[in-house]
């Protein structure tokens, strides 16, 4: 594989290109965290009054499942999603199990919401690998949330702001570039997910911020803050501390919401490994943006970013970890998703599929 860069031709753009540039400037400062929450559909009021939610085995879990099940996920710098398992069928038969997903997050799991809201005409090379066309995802292809959907055999999520061509039969994506996860400060905060019956939450922490080309390209006096893999130690220390506090907050939530499953997934290790062991993953340039400006070592220029008239783009077959200096490539997202789904980075240690399909998850960790 080659990893050369080609400079995009000059051409056109005027007002549209200006909008695109503003779009990316805004997305460059998006919050580092997205919550991934896994919910079950709210049973009928009568069912709740009769048996309660009983999710942890303290009540009638079977009754809850019969009332109807669903799963929702809210994700962080990686993704956010929700899934629901269908109930039984009529006439003694059983309808095929289906998953309904509700995703909450920022641009890392936005499947086109911001583009739809702003009326942006995003062009190639966005979406060039898997979709072969731009879809509003800030990547060359699929996001972690897309791989999560595929692991559950359900279609990719449509953004809730896209009125044309959307299919909400398997859920909806509420992720919007630049959104936050502050509880109580948004219509879609966790306490509103919980108040409407959400009982399974999959919460993602933040990744290795000090390894992002966006951060590494900031001028510095010397390289004393770089670790052995070329990442900024200060930013990564802040990311690890953030995750520690988020994990502690999830433990407190498990105590307060005794009838809910709150799973914290620390994606820092999985994302740092993309850099530390990049050769094992077949990644050629772990600290360099595939689409950006400036060439090696980081190919990131805050004023000439991906999608600008002067972008420098890596070859189609090259495997980079970073797409535009902030967001990840499909190759990197696939690796992170595969590891996250195993549950090895989660507390309690539970596989995502198990959380979606079960009616009882250990309330520990």
Automatic annotation (TrEMBL):
Pfam families linked: Lipase_GDSL (PF00657)
Residue runs in coiled coils: none
Top-rank taxon, per record: Eukaryota
InterPro entries per record: GDSL, SGNH_hydro_sf
Entry GO MF terms: hydrolase activity, acting on ester bonds
Transmembrane segments: 21-39
Alphabetic keyword roster: Glycoprotein, Membrane, Transmembrane, Transmembrane helix
Classification via Gene3D superfamilies: SGNH hydrolase (3.40.50.1110)
Record bears the keyword Transmembrane helix: yes
Family of the protein in this entry: Belongs to the 'GDSL' lipolytic enzyme family.
PANTHER family registered for this protein in UniProt: EARLY NODULE-SPECIFIC PROTEIN ENOD8, ZINC FINGER FYVE DOMAIN CONTAINING PROTEIN
Protein name: Esterase
Organism: Oryza glumipatula
């Amino acid at each position: 594989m080659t990893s050369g860069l080609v400079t995009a031709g000059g051409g056109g753009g005027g007002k549209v290109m200006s909008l695109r540039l503003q779009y990316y400037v805004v997305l460059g400062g998006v919050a580092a965290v997205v919550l991934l929450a896994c919910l079950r559909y709210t049973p009928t009021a009568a069912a709740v009054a009769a048996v309660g939610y009983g999710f942890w085995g303290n009540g009638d879990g079977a009754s809850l499942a019969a009332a109807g099940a669903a799963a929702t996920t809210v994700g962080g710098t990686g993704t956010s999603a929700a899934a629901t398992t269908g109930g039984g069928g009529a006439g003694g038969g059983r309808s095929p199990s289906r998953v309904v997903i509700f995703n909450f997050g920022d641009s890392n799991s936005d499947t086109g919401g911001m583009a739809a809201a702003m009326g942006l005409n995003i062009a190639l090379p966005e979406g060039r690998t898997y979709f072969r066309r731009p879809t509003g995802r800030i990547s060359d292809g699929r996001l972690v949330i897309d791989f999560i959907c595929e692991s559950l055999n359900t279609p990719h999520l449509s953004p809730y702001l896209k009125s044309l061509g959307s299919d909400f039969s398997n859920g909806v994506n509420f992720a919007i570039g630049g959104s936050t996860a502050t509880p109580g400060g948004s219509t879609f905060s966790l306490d509103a997910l919980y108040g409407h019956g959400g009982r399974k939450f999959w919460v993602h922490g933040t990744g290795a911020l000090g390894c992002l080309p966006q951060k590494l390209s900031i001028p510095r006096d010397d390289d004393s803050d770089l670790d052995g893999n070329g990442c900024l130690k200060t930013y990564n220390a802040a990311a690890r501390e953030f995750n520690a506090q988020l994990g502690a907050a999830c433990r407190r939530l498990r105590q307060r919401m005794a009838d809910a499953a709150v799973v914290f997934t620390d994606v820092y290790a999985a994302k740092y490994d993309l850099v530390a062991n990049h050769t094992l993953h077949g990644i050629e340039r772990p600290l360099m943006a595939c689409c950006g400006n400036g060439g090696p070592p980081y190919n990131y220029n805050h004023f000439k970013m991906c999608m600008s008239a002067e972008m420098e783009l890596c070859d189609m077959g090259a495997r980079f970890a970073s797409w535009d200096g902030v967001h990840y490539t499909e190759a990197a997202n696939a690796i992170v998703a595969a590891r996250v789904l195993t549950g090895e980075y989660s507390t309690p240690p539970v596989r995502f599929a198990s959380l979606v399909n079960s009616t009882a998850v250990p309330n520990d960790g």
